[in-house]
């Protein structure tokens, strides 16, 4: 069951999610994953490979409705944007056209110049996706997601398969664009360093079938999260949640 509500938080309460295998048997993917993402916060979902993270995002997106539980989306008229591992840009459209085509009717004609500037895409507007590196294509996907002024943005491993320098630059750009256009955000990652750099809260999942192992709040302001702070935070998380590193 799925219902959209007027509350400003994202409320996820998945009580059970199973897949039917080719042999007809059931594979339990999620046992109980229940947590809230406060309005305007950045929450990260982290857990072992195959534990049910993408399944959770697909349920929140409404792409999978075959589960027990409920999801309440934030905003009086929820608008959800998603950024996937593959940028999923239309190859026959320019970067700017890709962004403009995603706009809902009420935002049609909105000038994306500021957004392109924040994301360092000013000179890429008339390029086609095939002319972009993976890092630039991911920036274009971020521009498209933020352009729709979402009440919720979902990010599924948006920095995976990038070299560390490109990923680090993209993380900084995400922080900048998210600060300029604050919205409720839920990201899935395998990378705990990335999670502590970006998040207000981290939700740790158990191996499949997923349950919430624990939730860690981070109150340190992002500009104060320097290398020394990050190492201390990671050590603390390893103490609280052994094996997460
Ligand atoms: N359509 C499907 N049919 C059958 N099983 C599926 C389907 N989608 C996912 N699964 C299984 O459900 C479990 C959870 O998958 P999911 O993709 O959500 O995990 P994940 O935590 O995102 O994994 P990863 O970290 O490797 O990306 C896995 O065992 C997966 O094989």
Automatic annotation (TrEMBL):
InterPro entries linked: AAA+_ATPase (IPR003593), ABC_transporter-like_ATP-bd (IPR003439), ABC_transporter_ATP-bind (IPR050166), P-loop_NTPase (IPR027417)
Gene3D superfamilies: P-loop containing nucleotide triphosphate hydrolases (3.40.50.300)
Residues in ABC transporter domain copies: 14-232
Keyword line: ATP-binding, Nucleotide-binding, Transport
Domain of life: Bacteria
Region forming the signal peptide: none
MF GO annotations: ATP binding; ATP hydrolysis activity
Membership in a protein family: Belongs to the ABC transporter superfamily.
UniProt-recorded name of the protein: ATP-binding cassette domain-containing protein
